[in-house]
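Input chain follows. Return structure tokens only.
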Amino acid sequence: DLNWRAGSPPFVEGLRPNVLSQASTVISVWGQNFGTSAAISCVFAGTPVTATRVSNTLLTCTSPASLPVLNPSGLTVTDFWLSVASSLYVSHTVRLWYENPVTVSSISPTSGPLTGGTAVTVVGTFFRDHTSLACRFGLVTNVVTARYVSPTTVICSSPAQRVTGAVALEVTNNRVHFSSNNVQFTYAAEATITAVAPAIAYTSGGASIAVTGTNFIMAPTVSFCRFGNVSRSSTVTSSTQLTCLSPALPAGTYTIEVSMNYGVDWTSDGWQFTVLAQPSIDSVSPSVSRTQVVQ
């Protein structure tokens, strides 16, 4: 029976989750008129499964122990059916999606401050442009919405964390099934600047600038200095000291900041750095001098 019966037929308004990448998943089905005393089943790609009636507007069903064969694209879309007393009911506005499980292969940067807000680029497979696309940073409570870039790339903003250390960054298309690749993102104490010496250089650049501060990370290639909008790699010699070479800049006053994660997050201490015009010699007077030779 593809049409709703007269009276009070069951009506499905939505599923959560409506995207499945793992078998035996508990799905919430909400809608109307689920209060009938007749046996009611959810039908997954032709396979009926007995439903548990929670209320007149809510059912739960566990999907079958195996997924249907997926299309070559890795995604299969089907209608979702209810079976009540051997009659089938379908809502053509509700769809059930089957897909390959997502994977995470790498992230950049691999660290960020405890304050959060780091834009982390995640590379992997089978990401979907869906409202449920999300990243999880360690705990189940640290789930944030992901920005879809492509089937292999998403960007997530790290949530704030209370303690330093590494957490697993995982991705989900449905906020139920997460990747399980255990790629690590490290939370670090936020870097600060307490002194800059010298705080002056010439427009030609190349001056060695010593920066003193806190929570500098001693790892190759991750640290940078930024003079205004121009960034340069730096060398960290301790958790409180780093050096960088000033870039060639027009004369003026600039703010110098440092980054401990490839230039993604920067300090905001506002230390001033002055660039002076390169001195030059226009003339020498007298142009000839006598040298007295002492016998």
